[in-house]
Design goal:
single chain; 2 domains; 6-stranded parallel beta sheet; 45% helix; alpha/beta
Length: 187
């Protein structure tokens, strides 16, 4: 089976990062409060204007892209999936041209022992899944989940911002072992 795996929100807990570093940024910049803790992007969570959004990422991008930890057991489960003869495609909407984004991402995956057969940078995940015969996608973005689920099964990695994401071909999972359990039972 070909399995697609997203990075931000699936391999990482970007929601926790946004809340922790967003609150710090808000405090240091006299921003009143966290406006929407269930927001998908930092600008939604803090209601940031474009300049403040750029300032947030200028301050924390290096930490997030190079040093953020993977979710517990992600590496272990991906190794199990590979040993079970699955093909692993890391499919991310990260921009590879953004400040050495591709090399930072490949270095981060290597440092965190995240195995993959193919690493793909695209904001057209639906097309990639269709054109490359991906059998299952593990994703956190509600819009992407709803679109991909029209083609193939999607595991929705549970996050604050995707609580209302439901539908046919969508299975919610809460951890990497939960993912492995559901994939193993359905194979």
């Amino acid at each position: 089976m070909k399995i697609g795996i997203d990075i931000d929100g699936v391999l990482t807990d970007i929601s926790r990062f946004y809340l922790d570093y967003g609150a710090k940024f808000a405090f240091e910049n006299n921003i009143d409060k966290i406006v929407d803790p269930n927001g998908y992007e930092i600008e939604d969570i803090l209601d940031l204007e474009e300049d403040a959004h750029k300032e947030f990422w200028a301050k924390y991008d290096d930490y997030y892209t190079k040093k953020i930890y993977t979710r517990e057991f992600a590496s272990e489960i991906i190794e199990k999936l590979k040993k079970d003869e699955n093909e692993i495609h890391i499919i991310t909407a990260r921009n590879p041209k953004y400040e050495n984004g591709e090399s930072w991402t490949t270095d981060w995956l290597k440092e965190n022992n995240i195995y993959y057969d193919k690493l793909v940078f695209t904001d057209k995940k639906v097309e990639y899944c269709r054109d490359n015969n991906i059998d299952l996608m593990i994703e956190d973005n509600s819009n992407t989940i709803l679109k991909i689920s029209k083609l193939i099964p999607v595991i929705c990695f549970d996050n604050r911002y995707n609580q209302n994401c439901e539908g046919d071909n969508i299975v919610r999972c809460y951890s990497w072992y939960d993912i492995y359990s559901k994939i193993s039972k359905n194979n």
